[in-house]
Amino acid sequence: MRKFPKPNSKRRPGARPAHAPKVTPDDVTLFGIHAVEAALANPQRQLIKLLATENAAHRLATSIQTRGITPEIVTPRRLDQLLGADTVHQGIALTTDYLPEPVLETLLENAADGQPLIILDQVTDPHNVGAILRSAAVFGCAGLIMTRRHSPPLNGTLAKSASGALELVPVHLTQNLARLLTQLKENGITVIGLDGAAQEVLDDASLSGPLAIILGAEGKGLRALTAETCDHLYRIEAPGALASLNVSNAAAVALHLVAMRRRG
């Protein structure tokens, strides 16, 4: 079993070692076994420092050794102090740079190859966005597009909910969503919006060719200009006692339907 250095008992509680890299406001701290393991495996992640309990360090020993970073062994209480007592950190925290943002052209190329794009119109809950990223990774999306404002930061909370998918699905941020949708349409991508009040049902859509699926925030739904810019609006048929799905569940249902149609 790989050995890691133990905490320095002579160091005052909470003090950083003198050799630790400087952390800046532009850095992000990821936590949770799956999120950290995926980040360690992503060569685009520029690593700054790794804090881990002895158990967590041994659990990810192969990934840590492969990436060539030496963890600072800490107690769970130290991580609680850094991240908050309610944070489910699983004994590990990795400070990194934010991932480089992909250019839109890369996502357009992926979509032209048949992978659907997923677009979020001001979805602000990081847990929902993380869950959508996970579905996007499962079903092979071309990428995720969000508004630069009124979207959650790509930080530890979102990455934990994405369970590693943040490292797999490119995320592009746009300043003007309506203009971006127009650009997608000019590049031959059909833009469909999910709207609980739409007349047409998603089951009846062809879902063929280059495709982008856009979802709005819970409660508000798609903004008026966004809905007007879509090629089609569809609702997910919900014959049960509840009339609608959570936005992350709706994304999973839509992506699964697209995947089934394209396999069939």
From TrEMBL:
Q: One Pfam family, please name it.
A: SpoU_methylase
List the keywords (alphabetical): Methyltransferase, Transferase
Spell out the InterPro entries in the cross-references. Answer: Alpha/beta_knot_MTases (IPR029028), Ribosomal_eL30-like_sf (IPR029064), rRNA_MeTrfase_TrmH (IPR004441), SpoU_MeTrfase (IPR001537), SpoU_subst-bd (IPR013123), tRNA_m1G_MTases_N (IPR029026)
* Gene3D superfamilies the record matches: 3.30.1330.30, 3.40.1280.10
Location of the RNA 2-O ribose methyltransferase substrate binding domain: 29-102
Q: In what ranges is there compositional bias, type Basic residues?
A: 1-14
The record's region (Disordered) falls at: 1-23
Known PANTHER family for this protein? 23S RRNA (GUANOSINE-2'-O-)-METHYLTRANSFERASE RLMB
Q: What is this protein called?
A: 23S rRNA (Guanosine2251-2'-O)-methyltransferase
Q: What is the lineage of its organism?
A: Bacteria, Pseudomonadati, Pseudomonadota, Alphaproteobacteria, Hyphomicrobiales
